[in-house]
Amino acid sequence: QSSVPSLTSEPNSIMLVPVGDHYTMMDFATAYFREAQSMQGLKGMSAEKSAAGLVQHTKVPIQESLLQYSDSELNELATKNFKTLMRFMGDQPKLKNQNEVECIYEILQLCMEKESLHDEVYCQVIKQVTHNPNQESVLRGWLLLNLLTGYFLPSNILMPYATKFLQLASSDPSSTHHDIAKICQSNLRKNFMYGGRRHLPFPVEIEALLKGRSARRLVVLMPGGVEYLTRIKTFTVAKELLQEICEQMGAGEQEEIQEFVLFAIRNNMVRPVRSEEYLHDYLLEDKLVTVSLRRLIWRTPVHFENKIYTDVHYGQVLWDYLHGRILLSHSKETEMQVGILAMLQHWARTEQQNSAPSREELREYTPKTLQSSISLQALENHVGMLLRTRQPLQPMDAKIQFIEHVMKFPFFGYNIYFVERVSDNTISVPCFFGVNKEEIIAVHGTTQAISSVIPLKELQKMRTLRPVSDGGLPGIELNYGSAASPKTMWLELSQAKEMYHTIVVILDKTELHH
Known about the structure:
By secondary structure, this protein is α+β, with helices and mostly antiparallel strands. The chain folds into 4 domains: 25-211, Serine Threonine Protein Phosphatase 5, Tetratricopeptide repeat; 215-295, Roll (Ubiquitin-like (UB roll)); 328-407, no CATH class; 415-512, Roll (PH-domain like). The chain has helices at 25-32, 34-37, 44-54, 72-89, 100-113, 118-129, 135-151, 159-170, 178-194, 203-210, 238-249, 254-257, 307-322, 332-348, 359-364, 376-389, 395-406, 496-513; strands spanning 215-221, 227-233, 260-266, 269-273, 290-295, 415-419, 421-422, 431-435, 439-444, 450-455, 459-465, 475-481, 486-492. The strands form 3 sheets. The protein has a 5-stranded mixed sheet with strand order 2-1-5-3-4. A 4-stranded antiparallel sheet has the order 6-8-9-10. Strand 12 and strand 13 (486-492) form a beta hairpin. The radius of gyration is 30 Å and the shape is elongated. This is Unconventional myosin-XV. GO terms for molecular function: actin binding.
């Protein structure tokens, strides 16, 4: 038992938004501050004045924690933190060689390690920004509150009081900090819904905040080579950025936005970002992470009234088609399809409506997996015949027809992974595994016959597996089936993590759909 408020035991089941005059910080201090217990004999004005003083700026460090702790270590950490806070806010001289970034780190690190001190730290910062005569000091305090609200939730007991404090501060237009108080309110709401950022900020991020730069430039790589330039804030979640990009593309319906996913890519490691995750948790200081966007699920119908939307979909479908992300087996019929799609790709390029593609271009228009098995001469003859018998299309119309054509392929809409080993010996390896909105399938490496199907609704749990030996491949273990007949399968593939997280994201999104 560490403090009077039960700080960590209960989950935050409801987000209280207080109304009226209740739930002021003065009320909280009167009920829970250590010092308030010793003032219980006071009456009238002097009691009110003393209570108000409990939550007002002080020039002298506190000697004991504001909240009652029976654990002496917590009491000590609280008083030490107050001194760090005063140094950061400029109310006390900094230690030798100590800078502001280190002060912030110390405070955030303490909150990371001691959940039971969250309320204490909140109360300390709120106290130091209340009736503080030094504007620079107040601004520093609010900057810290901005970080606290995005990272750590107050307990259920303090939550309504902290919410009320932020409400009052943001509704006072005369104050210099009503804008940052609004940001803190939004942070707290997001933190409540999504659980707060996982990783502490890098020093460069804190330095930028101290200089008043609250947004960071981000380039999102879109399919088809389009770069989307945006600015993200300290606590932007993927969902907000997806909404912004999709609206620019003319895909404003929530159901369709759900089908797009941001991917964080670093050194060939690809990781889909869940919509409620904070982007900064993926963006490392070293600028080695790139963020891209893809459509992961194809449930809602595609529509082509917006040029950017068409270009993005064409870019993704084309890349997947040419790079083996859509499985195609070699047959006479496939050769005919490759010819039609080569013609559409040619027309999709501007000013190519009246010319025939060169051999080099035809090779570019052919999927890499089929280049060795399709005769260029036969393809040239076929495309030449098509061009003589068909009316050329404008680039936009050619792109739309290309997308609609590829969407008819049997394996369209599956995310495809090359798997080298499987525990089920009825599946011959190497093979492909595909994941779409409904199922996981195992596909024969050459005949492309489907040898196994696991409906996603039967997936009970899964986990990633480390390589068994040095230089071995990572894997995934899938537990599926019913309680009466449980089944397990493991597979080894270089993209194990990407496949695992893709399944997680699809499950998230399909649950929302149901």
